[in-house]
């Protein structure tokens, strides 16, 4: 199970376990996508029990141990390949930025006033300014640090919001971390973890963003032009335009490998997907399915995205154009990931959800911790917080249909925490499935 512990405050979640339980097992295939460890199991056709033989981890630079035409056969038994995600991507043993001793004491106290939080943030700004100003003139450094210590309105709004949710986050995380330490899921010492020889690649090369950019260049898909869905067969390598023009389905009980721009991707069993830019959603509408849960993680505009140039951001008016009402089933649960910028949080609650006829029900927080249970960033950091916000709401519409679907469904709590060790691959969010079953 991806849920390690469930308390009143929320859940302690094992993201790695969730990925590995999705059934990434392939029959008679020996392709090795980067970033996974493979286990070979030999299974009898008449018998579902398997004997697994663990294989060493392979990076993307390692070649497969077998040639393209090779296969393993043992007395008429067929071979299977099971993929697991590389553990080192979740080996966050130390905070990204360690809090200074004074702030560590502050973080040990749930009750901290807005004034004290501002003072701690200014201290952090001063220290960051001092680090970045090495080699510059003293006058320039002083001027820069002085300018940084003045809060603009957006920062003041963020500090005020943080002061309201801080106690809930601190206390709830503390209780969940204590349970994780008791059960052994979290470890006080990182000695065991630091012995690993595998190093996490500095940058994971992934062409999905480039593919979505490519989708913008394709002609618009009309309702009658293409089939609604395409079923994945064995390892598929098709023209990207074909893959971007309809929903891809893996209806089998085994995972499938799909090749896009020369890279292999694993598709879990009993799943479907549309790989497309947000402006090209007609294939999903042609699919004519309604969904009980819709999770949205928009590429919000922020300074970090602009600096890294990792992906394009969406303006707020274009996020409103996402055709959510056409995709939502009655009483659909809508979950939106929001940055800690208050402008975006207000937009979701005051504009976006009303525009979609969605009633806001709750704000939850995802808290990121290390394997030792520490916050990955200082709790009172001004630049980045060790938490992100989820806004939960329900589609309002057909009252009778909504009432039928809501029978026996628990009400959504106003506030919950999802505490987990984050993945070092950029922007991977924690699994939500284990938490939402009770509310569907």
TrEMBL record:
Gene Ontology CC annotations of this record: cytosol; nucleus
Coiled coil: none
GO biological process, one term: methylation
Pfam families to which the protein is assigned, alphabetical: MT-A70 (PF05063)
InterPro entries associated with the record: DNA_methylase_N6_adenine_CS (IPR002052), MT-A70-like (IPR007757)
Compositional bias segments (type: Low complexity): 50-61
Region (Disordered): 47-73
Superkingdom, natural source: Eukaryota
GO terms for MF: nucleic acid binding; RNA methyltransferase activity; site-specific DNA-methyltransferase (adenine-specific) activity
Family listed: Belongs to the MT-A70-like family.
Name of the protein: METL4 protein
Organism: Panurus biarmicus
Gene name as annotated: Mettl4
């Amino acid at each position: 199970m991806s849920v390690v512990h469930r308390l009143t405050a929320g859940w302690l979640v094992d993201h790695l376990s969730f990925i590995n339980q999705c059934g990434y097992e392939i029959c008679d295939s020996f392709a090795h996508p980067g970033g996974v460890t493979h286990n070979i199991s030999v299974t009898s056709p008449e018998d579902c029990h398997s004997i697994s033989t663990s294989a060493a981890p392979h990076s993307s630079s390692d070649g497969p141990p077998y040639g393209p035409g090779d296969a393993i056969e043992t007395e008429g038994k067929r071979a299977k390949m099971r993929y697991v995600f590389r553990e080192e991507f979740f080996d966050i043993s130390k905070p990204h930025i360690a809090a200074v001793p004074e702030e560590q004491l502050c973080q040990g106290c749930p009750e901290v006033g807005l004034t004290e939080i501002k003072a701690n943030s200014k201290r952090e700004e001063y220290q960051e300014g001092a680090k970045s100003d090495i080699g510059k003139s003293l006058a320039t450094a002083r001027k820069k640090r002085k300018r940084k210590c003045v809060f603009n309105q957006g920062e003041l709004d963020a500090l005020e919001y943080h002061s309201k949710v801080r106690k809930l986050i601190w206390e709830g995380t503390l209780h969940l971390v204590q349970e994780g330490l008791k059960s052994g899921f979290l470890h006080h010492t990182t000695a065991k973890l630091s012995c690993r020889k595998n190093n996490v690649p500095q940058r994971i090369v992934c062409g999905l963003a480039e593919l979505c950019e490519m989708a913008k260049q394709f002609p618009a898909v009309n309702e009658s032009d293409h089939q609604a869905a395409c079923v994945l067969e064995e390892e598929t390598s098709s023209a990207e335009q074909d893959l971007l023009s309809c929903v891809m389905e893996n209806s089998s009980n085994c995972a499938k490998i799909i090749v896009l721009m020369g890279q292999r991707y694993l598709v879990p069993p009993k799943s479907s997907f549309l790989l497309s830019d947000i402006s090209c959603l007609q294939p999903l509408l042609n699919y004519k399915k309604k969904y009980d849960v819709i999770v949205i993680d928009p590429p919000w505009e922020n300074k970090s995205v602009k600096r890294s140039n990792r992906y394009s951001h969406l303006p707020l008016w274009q996020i409103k154009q996402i055709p959510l009402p056409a995709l939502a089933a009655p009483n659909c649960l809508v979950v939106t990931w929001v940055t800690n910028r208050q402008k975006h949080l207000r937009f979701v609650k005051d504009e976006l959800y009303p525009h979609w006829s969605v009633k806001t029900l709750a704000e939850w927080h995802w808290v990121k911790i290390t394997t030792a249970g520490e916050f990955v960033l200082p709790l009172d950091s001004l630049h980045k917080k060790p938490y992100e916000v989820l806004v939960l709401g329900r589609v309002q519409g057909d009252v009778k249909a909504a009432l039928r679907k809501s029978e026996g469904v628990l009400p959504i709590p106003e506030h919950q925490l999802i505490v987990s060790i984050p993945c070092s691959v950029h922007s991977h969010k924690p699994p939500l499935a284990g938490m939402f079953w009770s509310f569907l």
